[in-house]
Specification:
Number of strands: 0
Structural class: mainly alpha
Shape: elongated
Order of helices and strands: HHHHH
Number of helices: 5
Largest sheet: none
Strand content: under 5%
Helix content: 55-70%
Distance between the termini: 94 Å
Amino acid sequence: SHTQDQVRMPRAAVAMARATRRARVFNLAKGFYGKRKNCYGIAKRATDKAMQKMYIGRKEKKRDMRSLWINRINAASRLHGTAYSRFMNNLVVSDVQLNRKVLSELAIHEPKSFGALVSFSKQRATDERAKPGLMALFD
């Protein structure tokens, strides 16, 4: 069927690549219910969706943690007679650079230190606000 000057291409070996690809999907689908774990087409769709949800979950986890820290700081600051927003503003005005995660840990494990921080920031903020020129900003 072909002439002498035509070169025959070797046949592409697909089997190994196909087996590897399927094994990867089935590994990811371990523990899934029903055909989602052992039927390739269904497992592929299920693992793709699972991967999307994993990505979304990693973002949501950060949001959830920040929300938790804020709730803890709010509860602890209210025990010392200050609302969360006022407390955080006092920290900014008094140039205390502690993030919410650290403040939350302080509130739980070192309540006396947290109380001292609340009173310090309250005192320092009122001193800063009393300076001439800054009074107009906070009225």
